[in-house]
Design goal:
It is a single chain. The chain folds into 2 domains: 124 residues, Nitrogenase molybdenum iron protein domain (Rossmann fold), CATH 3.40.50; 135 residues, Rossmann fold. It has 12 helices and 12 strands. A 5-stranded parallel beta sheet has the order 3-2-1-6-7, covered by helices on one side. Strands 8, 9, 10, 11 and 12 form a 5-stranded mixed beta sheet that branches. A two-stranded antiparallel ribbon has the order 4-5. The longest helix has 22 residues. It starts with 11 loop residues before the first strand and ends with a helix.
């Protein structure tokens, strides 16, 4: 399907926060007719129908997904396309594919994949130029952070966690962000890991961004874990919480997520940067 050639105005049902955030950012807000309940943290979704269902589940790579909700409710909205992000449960896929509406399932794992998804959704919604501009803006923020990270005197090992039970490390795109911020992912990204594997890696910084919890990850669970009592990050109490949507949403929120990672991985550099900005403002006043 060549989305760019379509002349119709899309009526999009978005089942993933990443899809919603991208469409909002490229200026396609008016083409979204419904979102999943997990999209509530995406700005400006007021007035949209909210699709609910009984097959919500946590995906290993971090993002929250929906089953597709009630078929009658969906069709009553007259969608031209339904867009989600894998993995889905088998019954969820069967339910969505049974509908007489095109279904687009995205599966990003890397920052390059995220950029490809932005371009694809920009094409689908007729917002190609804005999509390209959004990618440029995100790259610019990443370059600025990487330039700051070059001043770091060390490259600490960082453990980022997307879920505690079972323990799952943050997705591969987060590992890339950690590298941009002058750190190194301590364990395999986007996979189940054990307490022993994390302890053996001995990360110097821990970041908790538990899916579907907002900023409510619990650092005390890491600090009180007997298996981690000798881990550097625990001994130095360098266990931090970053809002899950900033790391687990493969779209525009990752730019702010990178800023938050930089703040906890290299606080000495971000503090100096803030001081320089304050001095510059004072001098200009």
């Amino acid at each position: 399907m060549t989305f760019a050639s379509q002349k119709i105005r899309q009526r999009i049902v978005s089942l993933a926060p990443s899809v919603t955030s991208i469409l909002m950012a490229v200026g396609a807000r008016q083409q979204i007719i419904a979102v999943s309940k997990w999209c509530k943290d995406v700005a400006d979704i007021g007035g949209l129908s909210v699709v609910s269902g009984d097959c919500w589940h946590f995906a290993a790579r971090g993002e929250r997904m929906a089953s597709g909700g009630n078929a009658a409710t969906l069709m009553g909205l007259r969608p031209t396309i339904i867009i989600g992000s894998v993995p889905f449960k088998t019954e969820a896929v069967e339910k969505i594919l049974s509908l007489p509406v095109p279904f687009l399932a995205l599966n990003p794992r890397t920052l390059a994949d995220v950029e490809s998804d932005i371009l694809l959704l920009g094409s689908l919604s007729g917002k190609n130029e804005r999509a390209a501009k959004l990618i440029g803006e995100m790259r610019g923020k990443f370059r600025a952070i990487a330039a700051m990270a070059k001043w770091a005197k060390s490259k600490p090992l960082v453990y980022c966690e997307a879920w505690p039970h079972p323990r799952i490390s943050s997705p591969p795109w987060v590992a890339e962000l950690v590298e941009i911020c002058g750190g190194k992912m301590a364990v395999r990204a986007g996979e189940r890991v054990t307490d022993e594997e994390v302890a053996h890696a001995n990360p110097e910084v821990m970041v908790l961004a538990w899916a579907a919890t907002g900023g409510k990850s619990k650092p005390e669970q890491a600090l009180k874990n007997p298996a981690w009592k000798d881990v550097s990050a625990v001994r130095e109490r360098k266990v931090f919480v970053i809002r899950d949507e900033l790391l687990n949403t493969p779209g525009p929120p990752l730019a702010q997520g990178a800023e938050e990672l930089m703040r906890v991985i290299h606080p000495e550099l971000t503090e100096k940067s803030q001081m320089r900005r304050s001095a510059a403002k004072s001098g200009a006043a």
